[in-house]
Amino acid sequence: MVVLKTGRELSVMREACRISAGALKMAGAAVEPGVTTAELDEIAEKYILSQGGTPNFKNYEGYPATACISINNEVIHGIPSKKRKIEAGDIVSIDLGAKFDGYHGDNAATFACGDVSSEAKRLMDVTRESLYKGIAAAIPGGRIGDISHAVQSFVEARGFSVVREFVGHGIGTHLHEAPEVPNFGAAGHGIRLASGMTLAIEPMVNAGNYGVKVLPDGWTVLTRDGSLSAHFEHTVVITPDGPKIMTVAD
Ligand code: MF3
Ligand code: CO
Predict the structure, then answer these.
(1) Cα–Cα 20 to 30 A to 23, which of 100, 116, 186, 235?
(2) Quick one: which atom of ligand 1 is closest to the CA of 61?
(3) 234: β partners
(4) Which CATH number fits domain 7-245: 3.40.50.2300, 3.40.50.1820, 1.20.1440.230, 3.90.230.10?
């Protein structure tokens, strides 16, 4: 069931999203050679708690941390570790969210550590822009497939591929709600979009093939072909005036 949110709910959810975006911004700003993924996770967690939120990934289906931090050929769900140091030239995807007063925010971005390859830069630019193409398609009266198609067509026209096995989602009193928001599909298909829907739109884009595999840790998702991957996500609300991004930092 897709839950449409009222104005009161949206104002609480906006706070969860503000906290989520602030934590992502702070963790992203701390990406530099030698920093560990556990240190980035701690920065995010401390910020979320300081704002009266709680890290909503922690303990979700047993997930052990605040953030998912996925480097280079890791797509999503990398587990922060004291042993994993970020190196110059890495691209670092950070995905995290906060719960505040019963409502969730969720966002992600890929950050460059120092100078990265021109392919990595292009992958990050195309993935970020594909998110904005998807968001622009989130209008009342449209369909979920309009978002999917906007992302997929933009990405594939630039020679990259969209991951199929993981998708975006509705969000609200639960981190994951209906509907699913795939990053691939046909325009004009899927459920109808309506004012009050809150969606986490989150393209995961591989430089090579779209295939992925999961490490034996049960979480870390890698590209099957070893190619680089990037991930950008915003929590968005559909309004009569069009889509509004909720995950905006102060
Ligand atoms: N970041 C995922 C999403 O955007 C959720 C992470 S699941 C967790 O939907 F278990 F890692 F938290
Ligand atoms: Co999400």
Answers:
(1) 116
(2) 10
(3) 201
(4) 3.90.230.10
Closest-CA residue, ligand 1 atom 5, reads: 57
Say what the pLDDT of residue 103 is.
98
- Model pLDDT for residues 194-217, shown as the tens digit of each residue: 999 999 999 999 999 999 999 999
146 in Cβ contact with 187 (< 8 Å):
yes
Environment class of residue 154 by beta-carbon count within 10 Å: exposed (0-12), middle (13-18) or buried (19+)? buried
Close Cβ partners of 74 (under 8 Å, ≥ 6 residues apart): 93, 220, 221, 222, 229
- Rounded to whole angstroms, the Cα distance separating 168 from 203 reads 8
Using CA atoms, how far apart are residues 206 and 186, in angstroms rounded to an integer? 20
What are the sequence ranges of the domains in the chain? 7-245
Ligand 1 surroundings by CB, under 6 angstroms: 57, 60-61, 63, 68, 77, 95, 106, 169, 200, 202, 233
Instruction: Judge contact between 109 and 123, C-beta under 8 A.
Output: no
Low-confidence ranges of the chain (pLDDT < 70): none
